[in-house]
Amino acid sequence: MGIPIKGICEPEFAPVADVFEDNFKHQGELGAACAVYIDGRKVVDLWGGYKDPKKETPWEENTIAGFYSVGKAMAGLCVLQLVDSGHLELDLPVCRWWPEFAVNGKEKVTIRQLLCHQAGLPAIRKRLPEDAMLDWQLMVQALAEETPWFPPGSKHVYHTNTYGFLTGELVRRISGKGFGSYFKERISTPLKADVAFGLPEHDLPRVAELVWHPSGGPPDPNILDRPMTETERMVNHSYFNPSGFSSLGVMNTRRWRMAEVPSTNGHGSARGIAKIYHILAHGGTYKKDFLIGRHLLTEATRVQSEGPCPILERDVSFGLGFQITRPDRPFGPNKHSFGHYGTGGSLGFADPDARLGFGYVMNDIIPRWRNTRNQALIDAIYKII
């Protein structure tokens, strides 16, 4: 039986469909979707494979999937909107809007530092209950009480799971709405972009089941109890305190999908992600759709912090909420591209030079963000344009 692949490609983009199909035949893809918008044209909108590892339920047009750290850029974008509207200022302290934050050396942490992973809060030292990440108030209180792991502003360390709570709490305090509600009201509904944080009950049947192949096998359940250096403690606590912080053990549960963990558990379609990045590729405004002013977006998409990261174990370039294209992790060949990868390869990015928005989601999670599957799709697109 052939692999069920559906959707559309403009004729000149037919090679992208060939690569998409090849990912299933030769790259182990289970289920996936890919979308590309260029200058208002939806030139690629493909979906295929299966929603489940038993290959019993085909991936459908309205299937959505968890996209992990793709959500960090969405969370950062919401904070940037509040900066753009004058409710926040990049170089003023977070505690001006979150007074409880002003303890244990965090009094001078700025919005800018928080957005580019320089706040010193990639992990929480105090051991948290197993399901703590599903309790918003517990998580933000723990972060407000935390002592930075390094002097804020001195370097960056990827806030792999705390980023969404830090940015989301600012959104909540300014807007009076939970992060998921704000995102729906200000971004997903106006743009008709199928992206959400905290799924409603009626959307649960649309979600693809995630299959994760962790490199090196499953984590040691006693990993936080073994002797380790302070850097090792920071890294391990960032992933495993609480134990389900990175979604392991809970990623396909109803409670995980309905919770708001913006760094990790956003869900959506490739089409929805590509729509958002298409507007960003046009400076934040396209026709009647507006996300953010061009001047602030230009600031957000320049390199704010660059260098090695002990959590990602490589050199990285951070803007404000976005990862910035770099030679070893390029979003295509053009130098002004920006976006964000997610665990296993999910991806959204904007290329202002090509006026292009790209989205890709899948449910078979393989190690590393940039991998042979998403890179093959990107290469095929740029061979055409």
The radius of gyration is 20 Å
Uncertain residue ranges: none
List the total number of helices. Answer: 11
| Mean pLDDT figure | 95
Proportion of helical residues: 25-40%
Keywords:
alpha+beta, single chain, about 15% strand, three-stranded antiparallel β-sheet, about 375 residues, Beta-lactamase
Outline the structure in words.
By secondary structure, this protein is of the alpha+beta class. The chain has a domain at 5-63 and 262-384: Beta-lactamase (3-Layer(aba) Sandwich), CATH 3.40.710.10. It has eleven helices and 16 strands. The protein has helices at 14-26, 70-84, 111-115, 136-145, 163-175, 179-191, 230-240, 254-258, 270-281, 294-300, 372-384; strands at 5-9, 31-38, 41-49, 65-66, 195-196, 211-212, 267-268, 285-286, 289-290, 305-309, 314-318, 323-324, 338-341, 347-351, 356-362, 364-365. The strands form five sheets. The chain has a seven-stranded antiparallel β-sheet with strand order 1-3-2-15-14-13-12, sandwiched between helices. A hairpin with a 2-residue loop joins strand 2 and strand 3 (41-49). Helix 1 packs antiparallel against helix 11 (372-384). The longest helix is centred in the N-terminal third of the chain and has 15 residues, at 70-84. The protein is globular, with a radius of gyration of 20 Å. The model has no long low-confidence stretch (mean pLDDT 95).
